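Worked problem 6 (solution included).
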Amino acid sequence: MDRYIDKIAETINTSHRILFITGAGISADSGLPTYRGVSGLYESKNTEDGIQIEHALSGNMIKTNPEITWKYISQIEAACRDKKPNQAHHVIYQLETTGKSIWILTQNIDGFHQLAGSTNVIDIHGHIYHLKCTQCRYKTVVKSYQELSTIPPLCPSCNSLIRPEIVLFDEMLPMDKLEKLSDELNKGFDMVFSIGTTSVFPYIAQPVMDAASKRIPTVEINPSETTVSQYVMFRVQDKAAKTLAAIWQQTK
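Solution. The predicted structure is:
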């Protein structure tokens, strides 16, 4: 096991406010893919419709050809369906039950952190099972897209298009979630984790970089090198579930 596990556990024990930044890699042990696309799913350059997945899953496409966008969103949902949070998600929740102030900034749209029990989750890219009308204020939550009578689904209130509350390519991040993230960052954290994310987006990398510049303990858990690898205090090149389970054992 990595030489940093004991030191990371010791630092957790003396920390009160901890930020976990998570990407697709934390859900890999749940059976979800980590490669190209929203939450990972598309390895080939183009979709079967001959267009790039970024174009199929874009804000412009859902406005002009929602059938295409919903087709690929449904494939993502099918990959998530019946999958469950893994030990990595559960360890983060267990840390919250010890009385620490645990916050999660996740790029994932699978909702696994919430399913594991975590309460302070900023799902910056949204949640695949949270749906909203594109015209009126109708919103709903489903457990599976199998509950939907049609794809694309239509609003029962105004018969307009319904879409998932996720951030598609070329769309802006939700302002309320950005403000919440800013508020919590301004309060400060005693420790910052980056888990299973390549940290290519500035809003994902910046909290790690800022903490590192202030000598606040930072941890990266990722088998591959990323944008923030050279800046963190502790770097563990391994899978999230295995690593967090080992850390949890040392914090007890």
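Discussion: The chain has two domains: 5-30+85-125+172-251, 53-81+131-166.
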